[in-house]
C-alpha cells in the first residue's frame, strides 16, 4: 500500500485549514450522502471523511487536473491512520492529556487569531468556544496518537549518501524534475517591546482581579470574562496537567512555589502577564488555571527593536558574528531561530523556496538584493498578530535548472528518505493488517486497500 507522505499533505497531524482542524467543516457547495465506507476494528471511516480531504486537494490544485487515483491514495492514507489507532489501542500507546490540552489550546488560539475574535469564531460555527474545543478534542488526541505510532515505525529510518545517489540514479534522465528559480532566505525577528505604562496597566488590572478573587469572586468566571488566552478562557482559565519544563520557566516556577488553591503574584512571560492558581500536584505533573493579559504595544516600542537589529546587522557585516548564530541566540521567532533563521518551504520542509511561492513581502525585499546581503530592519507582523521588526538575509538564489546532486542534494535526500519511510510503512501495514478486522465497502474494491503494492 503506497502512502504519499508529503505530496498529499496527509502526514499524521498535518492539517490545511481551520475547518479541517476543527473537524466540523464540510466541502462548500456540496451535498454529501454520508455513510461508513471502511471499518478498522472499532475505528470507522465515513464517506464525508474522504470527501473533505479530496475537496481540500481540489482547492489546493487551483484548477489543475488531479491524478485519477488520488481518491484511492487519500483513502489508503486514512486506512493507515485508522490502523495505527487500532494498534495503538492494543499496544497500550497512550498520549498524555497534558499534551492533548496543550495542542488544543494552541489550535484554538490560532483559530481565534485567524478569524479575528472569539465572538466571530463562535458566530461562524454557531457554537460556543467550549463546544468547539470539545468537538476537536478527540480528533487532536487521535492525531497525536497517530504521530506517536508513526514515530515508532519510521522515527529511526535514515539514508546514507550512497543511498541518496542510488535513488537519484534510478530516476530516468527524461523524468528528472525541472526546478524554477529558488531562494534560501533567513530572518532575524525582534518583537516590539511593551512600554512601561502598558505593563503597569496590565499588572494593576491583574492585581485588582487578584484582590477580587481573594474577596470571594470566582477565578473561573473572571478568567472567562477577562483572560486573553482564548484556548483556556472558555474553561475558566484551566490549562490541565503539565510536566516540568513543558510550560515557560517563569510560569512553571511561580506555579510550583505554591500550595494547591493559592494565587500567585503577577507573573511576566513572553506571552504577557499571568495571574496563576495552582489546582493540584499529581506525581511529576501539576495543573493550574490562569488569567492572561497582553499589554498593547506602540510605535516607539518598534523603534527599540529596530535599534537592536541594526546593532546585530553591523556585527554580522563586520564578520564578528554569523547570521545563523545571531538568529539562534537573538531572534524572537522560534520557528526559524533553530534553523539559523532560514525560512522553511512548507511543502517539503527544505530551506529552498520557489520564487513564485515566497511571501510577497519577502519577494519585493530580495528582488534587488545580492546573494549574501542583509536588509535594513523592516516592519513585520507575526503570524499571531504581534508588531515586530526583522532583518532579511538572502543566502542563495538558484537559477532554473534540471535536478542534479550538486545543487539539489538536500531535496533528493529528503525524497530518498521519504521513499524509505514509505517502504517501512508498507511493511508495517503488511505485517499488521491481518491482526485487526478491516471491512471495505465493495464500491471501493478498485482501490485495493488490503493489497500491498510495493
TrEMBL record:
Keywords: Isomerase, Rotamase, Signal
Domain PpiC: 180-280, 283-393
EC number(s) stated in the UniProt entry for this protein: 5.2.1.8
GO molecular function: peptidyl-prolyl cis-trans isomerase activity
Range of residues in the leader sequence: 1-20
Entry annotated with the keyword Membrane: no
Top-rank EC class of the record's enzyme: isomerase
Stated name of the protein: Peptidylprolyl isomerase
Amino acid at each position: 500500500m503506497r502512502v504519499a507522505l508529503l505530496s498529499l499533505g496527509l502526514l499524521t497531524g498535518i492539517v490545511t485549514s481551520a475547518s479541517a482542524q476543527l473537524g466540523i467543516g464540510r466541502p462548500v457547495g456540496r451535498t454529501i450522502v454520508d455513510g461508513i465506507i471502511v471499518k478498522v476494528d472499532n475505528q470507522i471511516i465515513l464517506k464525508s471523511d474522504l470527501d473533505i480531504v479530496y475537496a481540500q486537494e481540489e482547492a489546493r490544485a487551483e484548477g489543475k487536473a488531479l491524478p485519477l487515483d488520488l481518491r484511492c491514495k487519500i483513502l489508503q492514507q486514512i486506512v493507515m491512520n485508522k490502523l495505527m489507532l487500532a494498534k495503538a489501542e492494543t499496544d497500550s500507546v497512550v498520549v498524555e492529556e497534558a499534551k492533548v490540552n496543550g495542542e488544543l489550546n494552541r489550535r484554538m488560539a490560532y483559530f481565534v487569531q485567524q478569524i479575528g475574535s472569539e465572538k466571530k469564531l463562535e458566530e461562524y460555527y454557531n457554537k460556543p468556544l467550549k463546544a468547539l474545543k470539545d468537538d476537536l478534542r478527540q480528533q487532536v488526541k487521535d492525531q497525536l496518537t497517530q504521530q506517536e505510532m508513526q514515530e515508532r515505525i519510521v522515527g529511526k529510518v535514515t539514508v546514507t549518501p550512497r543511498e541518496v545517489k542510488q535513488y537519484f540514479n534510478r530516476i530516468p534522465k527524461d523524468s528528472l524534475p525541472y526546478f524554477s528559480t529558488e531562494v534560501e532566505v533567513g530572518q532575524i525577528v525582534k518583537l516590539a517591546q511593551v512600554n512601561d505604562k502598558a505593563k503597569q496597566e496590565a499588572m494593576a488590572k491583574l492585581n485588582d482581579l487578584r484582590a477580587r478573587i481573594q474577596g470571594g469572586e470566582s477565578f473561573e468566571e473572571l478568567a472567562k470574562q477577562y483572560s486573553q488566552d482564548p484556548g483556556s478562557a472558555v474553561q475558566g482559565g484551566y490549562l490541565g496537567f503539565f510536566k516540568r519544563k513543558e510550560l515557560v520557566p517563569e510560569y512553571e516556577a511561580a506555579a510550583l512555589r505554591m500550595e494547591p488553591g493559592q494565587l500567585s503574584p503577577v507573573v511576566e512571560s513572553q506571552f504577557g502577564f499571568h495571574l496563576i492558581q495552582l489546582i493540584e500536584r499529581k506525581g511529576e505533573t501539576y495543573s493550574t488555571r490562569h488569567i492572561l493579559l497582553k499589554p498593547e504595544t506602540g510605535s516607539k516600542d518598534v523603534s527599540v527593536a529596530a535599534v537592536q537589529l541594526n546593532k546585530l546587522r553591523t556585527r554580522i557585516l563586520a564578520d564578528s558574528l554569523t547570521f545563523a548564530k545571531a538568529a539562534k541566540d537573538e531572534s524572537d521567532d522560534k520557528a526559524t531561530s533553530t534553523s539559523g533563521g532560514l525560512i522553511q518551504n512548507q511543502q517539503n520542509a527544505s530551506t529552498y523556496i520557489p520564487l513564485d511561492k515566497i511571501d510577497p513581502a519577502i519577494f519585493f525585499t530580495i528582488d534587488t538584493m545580492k546573494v549574501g546581503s542583509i536588509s535594513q530592519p523592516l516592519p513585520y507582523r507575526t503570524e499571531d498578530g504581534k508588531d515586530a521588526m526583522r532583518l532579511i538575509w538572502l543566502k542563495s538564489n538558484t537559477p532554473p535548472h534540471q535536478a542534479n546532486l550538486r545543487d539539489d542534494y538536500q531535496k533528493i535526500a529528503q525524497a530518498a528518505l521519504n521513499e524509505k519511510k514509505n517502504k517501512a510503512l508498507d511493511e508495517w501495514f503488511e505485517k499488521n493488517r491481518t491482526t485487526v478486522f478491516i471491512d471495505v465497502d465493495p464500491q471501493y474494491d478498485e482501490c485495493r486497500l488490503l493489497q500491498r503494492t510495493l
